[in-house]
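User: Quick sanity check before I run a bigger batch. Here is a single chain. Can you write out its predicted 3D structure?
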Amino acid sequence: MTTGRADALVLFGITGDLAAKKLLNSLYQLSARGRLPDTVVGVASTQWRVDELREHVRRSLETNGIEIDESVFAELAGSLRYVAGDYRDPDTYRQLGDALGEARLAVCYLAIPPSLFGDVVEGIASNGLNERGRVVLEKPFGRDLASARTLNRTLERHFAEESIFRIDHFLGKEPVQNLMVFRFANSILEPVWNRNYIDSVQITMAESFGIEGRGGFYDKIGTLRDVVQNHLLQVVALLAMEPPVSEAPNALRDERVKVLTAMQPLDSAKFVRGQYDGYRTEPGVDAESDTETYVALRTEIDSWRWAGVPWYIRAGKGLPATVTEAVIEFKRPARLLFGDPGCEPHPNHLRFRMKPDDRITLEMQAKKPGDALLSRSVPLQVINDKHASGGHEAYERLLDDALTGDNRLFARQDGVEQAWRIVEPVLDNHPPAVPYETGTWGPADTLMPDGGWHDIDGVHQ
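Assistant: Done. Predicted structure follows.
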């Protein structure tokens, strides 16, 4: 295991789309905070000189709306090195070793297609970087359980588990981390955070846009692999996990994995797939594609705390709003008092809104103004101002953690395997995708009991 803060960063795929949209911003922000190593080596097949890379970095920052401080950019530009070469060519890694010079501990970030992970890991190992460094991989970590295990066998030949950072940027988001803090920093929740008081949990990840020109990629992945198997199962784990024994990285990851281990495999009878009208005409999409752009499912967690509580998940594109949230619905009172005969009050529920804003809302009942002794719903809200929070963007935070060696917000192999175990029964054995119109909420109604899904604030369904 390598300990201490890295003194070099190697970014494979530095000329690619992910780097341009997310990672170069993070490099700039880390440089502004004095957190960027003195040596940053970009590796790509594009035949550029280092001055062309520096100009590319500037253009990307400007495109992303970064107000460039020239002194910060000069420091970032001065740290950049560039190696142009084929990821399968041993000479590329010899050049990389030369570019790193006397660096003691390098973090190698693989912002490249998963099909190249094995080649690059072998190349890194060929010059000993694995013995004094860490590796960061972007999801997906395989396409199913078998391929995830195959990938891990390649990784574990050259890196210890503690030196492998499987990045899921969702875990780096401020509102997602707030789930943990809100749960475990407030003792008032613990007595009711269980099957005795909670009736159900609903998690929604809705996007009002389509695949945005990514047809060639998305048609091979689909919604289940793209966001459910990773992002949304992690949200389930954060909501359902037991208190960790400490703040140590593995203590937190242990509890997340325990939740995934206790989750039932998905059942095709409780699983709905949808595809928005017009998807098959998108560039790069098969004209007869059955790839889903929408899924909805019901599952349960077989643990003492959660046995019998249904967990509902829905995610999709082309929906009426762009919203990510979790709603915890509590059980109805044993006897309904003070209710309006014409309008039965909804049970108390706690809403964690993660996108587009960071908001926590507890819906309670209070007296309705007037002479009648009737109740009405009253929202108690906490709204976090992201501009005043002092927090950092997800990729910036996670990249900083990888440089430090803090892996608490990264996926661990046993958790990856459990997530694939959960979804594997419906990866291939599933119902056909049901067409749905863009701007609607998709075909999930059959999964829900009377009352259906919670309204998204301001967008009825």
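The chain has a mean pLDDT of 90.

User: Great, the batch can go ahead then.
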